[in-house]
Amino acid sequence: MRIDVVSIFPSYFDGLTLSLLGKARDSGILDLDVHDLRDWTSDRHRTVDDTPYGGGAGMVMKPEPWGLALDQLADSQSGSLSSSKGGPTIIFPSPAGEVFTQATARELATREHLIFGCGRYEGIDERVFEYAADLGEVRLISLGDYVLNGGEVAVMAMVEAIGRLIPGVVGNPESLVEESHEDGLLEYPSYTKPSVWRDREVPPILLSGNHGAIAGWRHEQQLERTRVRRPDLLSD
Ligand code: 6GU
């Protein structure tokens, strides 16, 4: 999979390349490139924003650097197993977008080429989204119902969630299956040695060696936790 990220703060993403995903990059499974939007400006001040037409607070990101960035990055790998409409999947993180879930991550992990465009200021000139729709499939995606200063932190979360689902990125595929949200339920509680710690015992069933009973208990724990903490997950 190829992932391009465009941002005016590319160094935000240094951390991504350190972790789990660093290995995927080294092994060639994931080709992750972070780009500085200002590389597609041509004025002396490398300007990426301007005042909004119609007035109002804040600044809006100018369309020209985004147009050049998308032209170059969408071209750099066209064809093959990309979005449903051909071309890359172009994702703009936005609190006004669809909410990102594990299902979104699973869907995007099957794509050949993702481009993330991180907006700052009050947003990006609306025509950029229309233009991007001619190059690939455009998705506006939110991390949740709260406001961040820009898309960078959201994109880091999305790239990590997507990247770890690419076959070969997480060492043991079973560790993917038994996680919160993979089966629509929260994860069951885990314990390790010692069996008694500060007068607290590990649930005896886990020491029983009865694997069927343990699986049943874990599933009950998942249901109960989900009922208490996230009843919204059970209601549909
Ligand atoms: Cl994707 N961007 C911004 N700026 N704020 C957010 C968000 C994204 N998701 C939740 N809040």
Question: What would your notes on this structure say?
Answer:
The protein is an alpha/beta fold. The chain has eight helices and nine strands. The strands form three sheets. Strands 2-1-6-5-7 form a five-stranded parallel β-sheet. Strands 3-4 form a two-stranded antiparallel ribbon. β8 (196-197) and β9 (200-201) form a beta hairpin. α3 (63-75) packs parallel to α5 (127-133). The protein is elongated and about 70 Å long. The two termini are 33 Å apart.
Share in β-strands: 15-25%
Q: Could you list the spans in which at least 5 consecutive residues all have pLDDT below 50?
A: none
Principal-axes geometry comes out as: elongated
Ligands bound, unique: 6-chloroguanine
Helical segment tally? 8
Walk me through the topology:
Layout: E1 2-7, H1 14-18, H2 20-26, E2 31-36, E3 49-50, E4 60-61, H3 63-75, E5 89-99, H4 102-108, E6 113-117, H5 127-133, E7 137-142, H6 152-163, H7 174-177, E8 196-197, E9 200-201, H8 211-229
Parallel strand pairs: 1-2, 1-6, 5-6, 5-7
Antiparallel strand pairs: 3-4, 8-9
Helix pairs in contact: 3-5
The structure holds 6-chloroguanine.
Summary tags:
single chain, alpha/beta, 5-stranded parallel sheet, two-stranded antiparallel ribbon, 8 helices, elongated, binds 6-chloroguanine
